[in-house]
């Protein structure tokens, strides 16, 4: 059996179409469809209840509030019963027609079958920043490689799922975690599709924060950069002090120096603030990890038998 996991946040417009599509492409397979309602405020949950009543392969979990897509994917994986799971968006931007091809590759022995989106027809600014970002992050981050155009749309074998579930960190940067667990990977490409209906939840700042998350989640190199930068400014400083000293000895005291002083103060202040921020980021993460809060709270579901069992464990 294959589990298809799909997080949904305010997706009332597309859910039925999504269900129909899955139904169509999965005719030949045994599957369960797990919807994770990430605290939607529209009729998403209502539609899921209807689907669940109509089709017993449809299972849903509904969070008590919006916990984010990462939490939703984690919940889906936790309750998946299949021998493999496909994670995909519910807005039909991840074409369901890819699933049979992914299953085929899985049967050939791949543990992760990754669907890669080409960036055709995308605004060049978006694809350009993406390219730059991946260059940067792969340079900065250890142990994992991130690929442009690769998102969360993928099939995971049971052992890959279990490996992911064993990572209990609170700050989940899935793109990185998928790469971190390793296993044999297979890439399949698909054409970029525009969102069918509804709106994307990504704003510029969300993307920026996501980008920073990616860098901070997987290494402490930014802290290392702070050390190098400190050493660098210190040596410049020492040279400059030496220069001033000699100048004063040779030419006597030279009072005007406002520009040098103010620029040194501002520059150093700026660098210090920047790295205080970097250190703060790490401490903030430690703080969240230390609390060991659950990733999500489930308000309603049609899989409670299984949830109770899991909680008793
Ligand atoms: N999503 C979610 N929680 C959120 C934001 C998004 O579960 O807080 C789901 C959303 O319903 C969709 C998927 O994550 O199925 C991708 O979201 P979106 O389409 O907004 O992102 P984009 O495709 O623009 O990257
Ligand atoms: Mg989308």
From TrEMBL:
Q: Which InterPro entries match?
A: Glyco_trans_2-like, Glycosyltransferase_2, Nucleotide-diphossugar_trans
Q: Which UniProt keywords apply?
A: Cell membrane, Glycosyltransferase, Membrane, Transferase, Transmembrane, Transmembrane helix
Give one GO molecular function term: glycosyltransferase activity
Q: Report the transmembrane regions from the record.
A: 225-246, 258-283
Pfam families per UniProt: Glycos_transf_2 (PF00535)
Q: Which GO terms describe its cellular component?
A: plasma membrane
Where is the protein found, in the record's own terms?
Cell membrane
Q: Which SUPFAM superfamilies match?
A: Nucleotide-diphospho-sugar transferases (SSF53448)
Q: How does it sit in the membrane?
A: Multi-pass membrane protein
Domain Glycosyltransferase 2-like: residue ranges: 3-164
Give the record's family classification: Belongs to the glycosyltransferase 2 family. GtrB subfamily.
Q: Which PANTHER family match?
A: GLYCOSYLTRANSFERASE CSBB-RELATED, UNDECAPRENYL-PHOSPHATE 4-DEOXY-4-FORMAMIDO-L-ARABINOSE TRANSFERASE-RELATED
Instruction: Kindly provide the name given to this protein in its UniProt entry.
Output: Glycosyltransferase involved in cell wall bisynthesis
**The organism of origin for this protein:** Seinonella peptonophila
């Amino acid at each position: 059996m294959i589990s298809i996991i799909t997080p949904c946040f305010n997706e009332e417009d597309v859910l039925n179409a999504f269900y129909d599509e899955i139904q169509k492409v999965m005719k030949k397979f045994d599957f369960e469809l797990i919807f994770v309602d990430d605290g939607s405020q529209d009729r998403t949950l209502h539609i899921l209840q209807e689907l669940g009543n109509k089709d017993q392969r449809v299972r849903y979990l509904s969070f008590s509030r919006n916990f984010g897509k990462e939490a939703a994917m984690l919940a889906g994986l936790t309750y998946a019963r299949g021998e493999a799971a496909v994670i995909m968006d519910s807005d039909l931007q991840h074409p369901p027609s890819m699933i049979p091809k992914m299953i085929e590759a899985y049967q050939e022995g791949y543990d992760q079958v990754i669907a890669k989106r080409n960036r055709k027809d995308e605004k060049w600014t978006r694809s350009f920043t993406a390219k730059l970002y991946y260059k940067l992050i792969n340079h900065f981050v250890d142990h994992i490689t991130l690929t442009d155009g690769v998102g969360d749309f993928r099939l995971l074998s049971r052992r890959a799922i279990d490996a992911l579930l064993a990572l209990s960190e609170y700050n989940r940067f899935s793109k990185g975690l998928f790469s971190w667990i390793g296993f044999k990977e297979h890439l399949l490409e698909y054409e970029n599709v525009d969102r069918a209906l509804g709106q994307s939840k990504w704003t510029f700042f969300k993307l920026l924060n996501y980008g920073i998350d990616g860098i901070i989640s997987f290494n402490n190199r930014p802290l290392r950069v702070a050390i190098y930068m400190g050493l660098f400014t210190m040596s410049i400083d020492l040279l400059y002090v030496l220069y001033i000293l000699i100048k004063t000895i040779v030419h006597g005291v030279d009072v005007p120096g406002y520009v040098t002083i103010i620029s040194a103060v501002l520059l150093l202040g700026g660098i210090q603030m920047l790295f205080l921020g970097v250190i703060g980021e790490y401490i903030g993460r430690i703080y969240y990890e230390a609390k060991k809060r659950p990733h999500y709270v489930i308000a309603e579901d049609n899989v409670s038998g299984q949830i109770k069992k899991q909680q008793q464990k």
